[in-house]
Design brief:
Strand order of the largest sheet: 2-1-3-4-5
Number of strands: 11
Number of domains: 2
CATH architecture of the largest domain: 3-Layer(aba) Sandwich
CATH topology of the largest domain: Rossmann fold
Largest sheet: 5 strands, parallel
Shape: globular
CATH superfamily of the largest domain: Response regulator
Distance between the termini: 40 Å
CATH class of the largest domain: Alpha Beta
Helix content: 40-55%
Bound molecules: calcium ion
Length: about 260
């Protein structure tokens, strides 16, 4: 992969440069935001490793520019600022991952690997569930043929749910990991955080809006909360959208119970 490292701490920059070169990547290092954008202009890297605290132009500013002008570049943000708000802001601005300083090379390598996997998963470009269609390359979503405007975080949240096709419950820890890019151990510690619930509700509001044929004048949610376990796209909504009649909830519950037994076996 062609990697551009943007880091003003020269020791850290050198350390990543050496490690990534040994892993076979093509690496360049710059130490400020303006030079980073100039360099991307010459040749947009496949991956940018971007420190937030930078001279001349803040990392957040660079991220914003990258998202507007070089959308094909994946951006992994490095930050010493541990707050959840900062992490959310970076992801909203289109960062693909956020790594907290200090980190080990081992961790960086693992994150890059998962990022690379995601980049190469584009063959499964369109996801469908019920009346929802997601085009992952275009980053667009339609519901019953109408465009749904989603923020970057809402989009990846819906993507996580759609990838499970309503067949598997998505736990809060999984979502913190997949959407907010928290390492699994940190996600487990944050599982009481209500951020997932907050974003699920944003998404519900957008998905529930004026759905033709949904059977309810007020529109309805397509995301079901499974108490104590997580969330999944509602297969009930999928069925009633097609058939025009809501099916019995008990049949659904039985199906969940069955799946859970199968998973335990
Ligand atoms: Ca810095």
């Amino acid at each position: 992969m062609h990697v551009l490292i943007v880091e003003d701490d020269s020791a850290l920059g050198h350390f990543m440069d050496q490690g990534l070169k040994l892993d076979g990547h093509e690496v360049s290092v710059v130490t400020d935001g303006e030079t980073a954008l100039e360099s991307a202009e010459k040749l947009p890297p496949e991956l940018m490793i971007l420190d937030l605290g930078l001279p001349r132009m803040d990392g957040i500013e660079v991220l914003r520019e990258m998202q507007q002008r070089f959308r094909s570049t994946s951006v992994l943000v490095l930050t010493g600022r541990a707050g959840m708000e900062e992490r959310v802001q970076c992801l909203e601005l289109g960062a693909d991952d956020v790594v907290l300083k200090p980190f080990s090379f081992h961790e960086l390598r693992a994150r890059l690997k998962s990022l690379y996997r995601r980049r190469s998963q584009f063959e499964d470009r369109v996801l469908r569930f019920g009346d929802l269609v997601m085009d992952r390359a275009e980053r667009s979503v339609t519901q019953a043929g109408r465009g749904v405007e989603l923020t970057a975080t809402e989009f990846s949240l819906l993507e996580s749910l759609m990838r499970r096709r309503g067949e598997r419950i998505c736990s809060r820890v999984e979502l913190l990991h997949e959407v907010w890019r928290m390492p699994p151990s940190a996600a487990a510690n944050r599982s009481e955080s209500n951020i997932v619930e907050v974003y699920i509700n944003y998404l519900r509001k957008k998905l529930g809006r004026d759905v033709p044929g949904a059977g309810h004048a007020q529109g309805r949610s397509t995301i079901r909360t499974v108490r104590g376990e997580g969330y999944l796209l509602d297969a009930e909504a999928e069925r009633s959208t097609k058939a025009g009649v809501p099916g019995p909830a008990s049949a659904l519950d039985a199906a969940f119970a069955l799946k859970r037994c199968a998973a335990d076996a």
